[in-house]
Amino acid sequence: MSTSEVPAVNGESNTANAPDLNPPPQPAPGGGRSPLALVVAAIVIAGMLYFGFHMARRTGGAAGAPGIAKITTAPDFTLDSLDGKSLRLSDLRGKAVLLNFWATWCGPCKIEMPWFVELQNQYGAQGLQVLGVAMDDSSKDDIAKFAKDMGVNYPVLLGKEAVGDLYGGVPALPQTFFISRDGKIVDKIIGLKGRSEIEDAVKKALNTPVGTSTAALQPQK
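User: That's the sequence. What structure does it adopt?
Assistant: Structure tokens below.
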């Protein structure tokens, strides 16, 4: 008798119902993926991480992103302004500085810029100076038009990645540093916050007394 047959019952053959003694192999759980599928999955995951990082930077959603610590000396830099003049941060010693990194494509930046205009008007006489650093690839003319349309009343500087790196890489936009009269970073805000929180940080910077022994900023490299 064949090993694949079972004796007939009531004269009928049970060959079709006989158990298969040589079943086809089944892949082990999680072990049957081809190397190509694993490579594709790795590429997709890497792409998602890359996209997520850059979206976080664009939207300013990384409230816990790393950066330079509070209460530290503000790194000095020199950048060109929209009017063609060079501005060095250390030239503003004695003033409280609101240093805002922004971009024309940044939606939250458009919300807070009118607040900066108001704060400059309100606290300028007390020694506040707002500075905007444009961190995008738009042309100088496009940035100038954008600033004019927003009614900006403070200097706008053409940013460079090297300057962003001095301030912890600027992992998200907008990002704002509040620098006291003696050149210390006393607060920072990553992403969009309320106007009252920004104003509180401005007051903190304004209320720091000028100390001649610590007024100098870090030397520019």
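The two ends are 93 Å apart (CA to CA).
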